[in-house]
Every structure is written in structure tokens, then in C-alpha cells.
Amino acid sequence: MKIQIINGPNLNLLGVREKSIYGSADFETYLAQLRNRYPNINIEYYQSNTEGDIINKLHEVGFSYHGIVINAGAYTHTSIAIADAIAAITVPVIEVHISNVYKREEFRHHSMLACNCKGVIAGFGMDSYRLGIENLISE
Ligand code: DQA
């Protein structure tokens, strides 16, 4: 079973960036823990700061993998193009956020992607990704 995690802009700086909001762990360390926890699942990871590259990755895996967990970062709130890519593919997509976006600035309260996703998980720190995976593998 293959699950793709996609992280969008600025999420390469986890562990460095705004630690009071996003925590002090880097994603690679968390990813190693996830892979240990789910040894029978092939968890692929992709990060890009570029909208088109995220769309290309969705196209690449979006017709064959078991599921996709995406944290599109700020593109969540702006990108019709990523929303269209999620609508175009057949693999279920779960939108995740590390922070509780609803506790933050109003511009973070709206997601362009959510209406094309299976569901949304926000506010559980890095554990948001695991919760997304749990749902995808429970199907
Ligand atoms: C985020 C929330 C977004 O509003 C923000 O732009 C991010 C990270 C989160 O994981 O909490 O880059 O997606």
C-alpha cells in the first residue's frame, strides 16, 4: 500500500520556522517515526515550495496510490490550481494542518482545497499527518 505525503511551501523549514506555532521537530525525524510505526505501508514524501511542482506530484501519484495526505501550506488558502488537481485525480486526498488554522488569522480560515478533499485535519501538531494516514488505511 502506497501513501503519498505532500508538503507545500515553507514546510521544509519545520523545526526552524515559527517554533511556537509549528514545534521544534523537523519533518524528516517525524517521517522516520511514521515509517517505523507503519512498516507495511510505503510512505512516500515530497516537499516543494512551488505550486506547479505540487500539481505535477498530484498528477503523478493521483491515479495509482492508496491515498494522499497534503499540507499545502499557504497555497491551501489561495490555490484554485491545486484544488483543480485534487478534483482531477481519483485517489482520496486528506488535507492536514499542523496548527489549528481556525484559531489563527481569518485568512487561514478558508481552504480552497477542502471541498475536493475527503476530509480535513487541523491542529494536532505533526500528529495531524498520522491521523490522516490512519483514516486512509482504515478503508
Ligand atoms: C499550515 C497552516 C497554513 O495557514 C500556513 O500557511 C502554513 C502551515 C499548517 O500546517 O498549520 O504554511 O498549513
TrEMBL record:
Lineage: Bacteria, Pseudomonadati, Bacteroidota, Sphingobacteriia, Sphingobacteriales
Positions bound to substrate: N71, H77, D84, I98, S99, R108
Domain of life: Bacteria
Role played: Catalyzes a trans-dehydration via an enolate intermediate.
Alphabetized SUPFAM superfamilies for the sequence: Type II 3-dehydroquinate dehydratase
Pfam families: DHquinase_II
Active site (UniProt): Y22, H97
Entry protein name: 3-dehydroquinate dehydratase
Site residues (Transition state stabilizer), renumbered to this chain: R17
Gene Ontology BP term (one): aromatic amino acid family biosynthetic process
Keywords of this entry: Amino-acid biosynthesis, Aromatic amino acid biosynthesis, Lyase
TM helices/strands, residue ranges: none
EC number(s) on file: 4.2.1.10
HAMAP family xrefs: AroQ
Recorded catalytic activity of this chain's protein: 3-dehydroquinate = 3-dehydroshikimate + H2O
Assembly mode: Homododecamer.
GO molecular function terms noted in the UniProt entry: 3-dehydroquinate dehydratase activity
Pathway: Metabolic intermediate biosynthesis; chorismate biosynthesis; chorismate from D-erythrose 4-phosphate and phosphoenolpyruvate: step 3/7
Entry keyword Amino-acid biosynthesis: yes
Family according to the record: Belongs to the type-II 3-dehydroquinase family.
